[in-house]
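Notebook p. 47: complex prediction with FE2/S2 (inorganic) cluster.
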Amino acid sequence: MFISKFSLLAAHAIKDLVKAPSSTWRTSYVPVIQNSYAQALRQKSFCTTAKKVSEEGSEEKQKVSVTFVDKDGEEIHVKVPFGMSMLEAAHENDVELEGACEGSLACSTCHVIVMDVDYYNKLEDPADEENDMSRLGCQIIAKPEIDGIRLALPVATRNFAVDGYKPKPH
Ligand code: FES
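Predicted complex, structure tokens below:
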């Protein structure tokens, strides 16, 4: 919009410039064009497309790629925003991962197996309820270091909160 107004103004200026003496040009049109240019810069209205692409690009950078591998070996690729747990990510993407206690660390039904030890080592230390390569999906939080992580879903889960199972102390 600015460009078309600017072009129209410039066209009038050039047309009048041909007729007007040079002093008229300097006093009448230069300040107007300068003000319009300065206003456009303040509003950053030159190219909104570039801004949108830039914002989308940065939004994309705020997510990590996660692959859930279900019990049949089928891979489900999802993008997870920073700060979101793998349990939430699974539920948002219709991945069948239980989460009976909704992330309050009471059930263990959300456990997943980290398929690559390098990624496992990038996670926060496990809580006492977690062991081996198995981690609780509700406790794995998306962050840049785990971009590309692969998580296997267990064949079966056990709900510690209702099964009466008491884990042995380490
Ligand atoms: Fe219960 Fe993760 S949802 S421990």
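Notes: Residues 102 and 148 are 24 Å apart (CA to CA). Confidence is low (pLDDT under 50) at residues 1-18, 22-51.
Next step: compare against the earlier run before touching the bench.
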